[in-house]
Amino acid sequence: xxxxxxxxTETDTNFVxxxxxxxxxxxIGTWKHRYYAIKQRLLPNASKLQPSELENHSRIxxxxxxxxxxxxxxxxxxxxxxxxxxxxxMVVSWGETGEIxxxxxxxRALGLHAxxxxxxxxxxxxxxxxxxxxxxxAYVEFATSFYEALFELTDHVIGSSCDEAYLDVTxxxxxxxxxxxxxxxxxxxxxxxxxxxxxxxxxxxxxxLKCSVGSGPNKLVAKCATxxxxxxxxxxxxxxxxxxxxxxxxxxxKLPVQDLPGVGHVLFRKLSEEKxxxxxxxxxxxxxxxxxxxxxxxxxxxxxxxNLIQKAKGIDETEWMPDPPPQTTSMKISWGxxxxxxxxxxxxxxxxxxxxxxxAKMLGDRRAKSITFEIMLSKDVKSTKKKGFLGHGxxxxxxxxxxxxxxxxxxxxxxEKVRAILNKLNEEIHxxxxxxxxxxxxxxxxxTTGSPEKNPKKRVxxxxxxxxxPAQGLIGPQSKVHVPDKTQPRVNSMFMQVQKKQKVAxxxxxxxxxxxxxxxxxxxxxxxxxxxxxxxxxVKKTAVPFFIEKExxxxxxxxxxxxxxxxxxxxxxxQNDEFxxxxxxxxxxxAGLATACAYSLADHVRSAVGTIQKHYVYKEDIEAFIERxxxxxxWHERMISRDDGVHCFVSAWKTACDEVY
Length: 661
Known about the structure:
The strands form 5 sheets. A 5-stranded mixed β-sheet has the order 5-6-1-7-8. Strands 9-12-10-11 form a 4-stranded antiparallel β-sheet. Strands 3-2-4 form a 3-stranded mixed β-sheet. The chain is α+β, with helices and mostly antiparallel strands. α1 crosses α2 (24-42) and α16 (546-575) packs parallel to α18. β5 and β6 form a beta hairpin. Helix content is 42%, strand content 13%. It is built from 19 helices and 16 strands.
């Protein structure tokens, strides 16, 4: 099915070795082990940074990031004549039909970014884009020289990845004879800028790769300084940027909340619903206040909320700990996984077992006390059988673990346990060989290093009272039990039927297919005909692309949430004695609330359209998305004669959607 020249787990008998040595995922997956070996060689006796070492000094933590690491490595190896070229768009990929793993800023200006791939239809490669192949041996060499340069400066290094690390240089540098103006200054601001400038220059000279440096009083502020102001070196006004402890709060206040570590898509949506968009909004919330307790419900806990506010203020209280040795090692393959025979499944698992055992030995002859096996099964086999597609697609994931009687790193024993777990899993869910799209073998080591296996969560001290009065029982945050708020007004029941009815309508829509559009989910190009009411034939429409459906679901949830809030606010206005005899004033407030709600929702729609446009889609796809969003008010329109507020909301909503695209 996939041809003789396509390497899959079924056709390539050496697939596991090629995957670990010649793929980006394999390189990234094994970097942690390489880094640990480098650190053991350069700094075998790493020690924890003691508080006494930081006395009488202003803390200086440096975050350093190599710009476009894979691209710089490939350019220096394959096209050294283009090292200083910042105008030519360049990407790293396996040929002109492979997935892009790295793009320079000139290519990003054309809309190209990591994760994209070119094909022969609507995603053709722009003519002026230069495609470079991977050079994994060069990447290992450059990453090794990068960390060697860092350990020359200080013993206090924490590695994040092959191209990113943190340094604590509060007590200065190990190098003698450093000639940098201001590096010995008593002024923290002058000293911090001088440190960042020297480190940026030193690393660039040693590993021959351009890098950006941000520094501040802790890791959080240093990373934000790098990502927002220092990157990219060569195009930024400040390839090295320093934020003092006194200015950290003001610096963080300008940043949007999505720039905070740990704020992903889901949490950002919840914060947006609470009208929190910048770190300044979080800084304004007092711990223990009513606003704080409202945010606890959205974020999911008082400790998490407290930590989020602390981050927004630029406060990072995590200890500076040397990198502990890995407590697990694993190998996971989720690309090119296509099986037709049971023999190939068992052969691949045998090779994977050998790889994880070799990694365990490389980490100092570590032995596994338990093993975890994971498998990914395709939800829709047809969608992953498209020509040239070797990804995993939408999958169900299953995981099983088993303890070992005797700790071991013997590949034969590990392989036997993996096969036993696979057979047991097959009895439970009846695996289909053709549906397998991913495999993972993970070893959990004995804790022989003396480091804790889990870091206990810190209790937040000081949250003794809130708007409900003093807490009873233990001092500190109490486990929050959700109690329905009976003070909330009851709202029009028909107004709240939107979510349920719209869900039924969307399911009906998503089952339709359109003949002249690509089916992005199931690759079903057949034109299905059905009988209409008059006995004639009509054609179903194609299902919308999955990424558009994802954005629509998000907007649909926001729409339901905003609708409820609007209904509550409208109810309160009508019940307010101040407006009982001032009908016109009441109408103005109702219209203002409805319009504000509609345009606030439209901002999220505009953001969703921007996300969709990052993919290669047709103009008609976006227009159809906008039309579906506009139709979210179809159930509200039945109430126009009953409620002027709903009428204003529907009109404003349609106008706002028309302005989006």
